[in-house]
Each structure stands twice: as C-alpha cells, then as structure tokens.
Amino acid sequence: MRDINNARTRTNGSTRDYVYETIKKQIIHCELEPETKISENEIATKLNVSRTPVREAFLTLAEEELLGIYPQSGTFITKIDLDLVEEGRFIRENIEKAIVREACGTFDDDQLMKLEKNLVMQELCLEKGLISDLFELDESFHLLLFEGCKKIRSFKMIRHMNSHFDRVRMLSIVSSLNWSLLFDQHKAIYQYIAENKPDLAEDMMAQHLKLVNFEKDELKSRYPDYFK
Asked: Can you give the pTM of this predicted structure?
C-alpha cells in the first residue's frame, strides 16, 4: 500500500480539511488498512502540519466511524461495518432516485455533455484498468447529477454518511467485480435522463445502488480481515 507521504498536493481549504481528506481517501482506497495504528505525531510529521488540525481531523473521522480512538491503546483504522454500509446505501438510493427524476426533462445540453464526457473517461479507465481513476469518475458522475439539480449540500451530507459504503465500493472495483455492469448502468442512467424517462432512470439508479448487496459476501470472503 502507498505511504501517506504520497498524498496529493494540498488543495484550497483549511489545514484540518486537508488532513481529513488525505486520511479519509487513503482509508477508502485501502492504502490504510483496517486495524492499522496511526498517531497524531506521525501524521503531522508526514503531512508537515501541526498536531492541532490532525487532532481535529481525527475527531471528524471518528464521528464517521473510520477511526477508533482508544486513550490507553491509540488510534486505529476501523473495520468495515456492514450495518453502516447498508444505512449509507439506503440513504443514497432514496435521495438519488429523486435526483435522477428531477434531472429528467430539466438537464440542458451542457449538463448532459458533462455526463457524457465523464462516461467517455470511465470507458477509457475501464479499458486500461485504472482503478483509482475509475472510482473518482464514478464519484464525479453522481456529483454531476447533484450539481445539475442544484443539490450540492445534499451531496456533501450524503458523502459524510457514506464512508463505509464507499470502502465497499472501492474493494469491489479493486476486485474487478462488475466493472462493466457499473459502467453500463451509468450509461443507462444518462440515456434515460437525456430521453426524459424518469421512471426508468429512477429504477436504474435503484438497481445501481443495490449492486453492493450482491457483492458483500464475495468481498467478505476475499477480504475477511477488512470486515467487522
């Protein structure tokens, strides 16, 4: 797994947000594996920041149940909790069904073009096996739907509740489970929005977000130490 020193360059925002996003991404991308012990001093040194924003980021990650903080033992990456996976999936399904329904008949050519460009990049990453990029494009595809419906705050809220769901999604991509099916579902969602078919778009989004239910047992078998 990559060392945290290889994190991307800091983007705009607070130091706390930078630390939070860096660690969260590495947990979701399996670069920091479950039960790995990390410390404020270690992270502060490697990211060249003070301990205060690291402590604040740790507390936020603990609220999302990505970190377990134990005063006598230390701070550890948590295992994936399938109850939290299902709760996150449930919330996403119900909100995103409403999002694609709203998108039908309201997205203009520019918004549809953004989705189409994303799909072109997904297909290229699929062909080349660019796993990390494929995950990011998947996330961007859903973000574009929320942006087009002017529901960015809703997307941010969901993101904070979907950490464990995202960990399973990433494991699925790493394991080459249903890559082509995910892409085909994205294409179908785009097509139904473009053709103003809200019932079909909503049904496809539900199928898309239920896919994880059929992958959980396989992933637990492949990665038994990752799950609670």
From this structure: 0.84
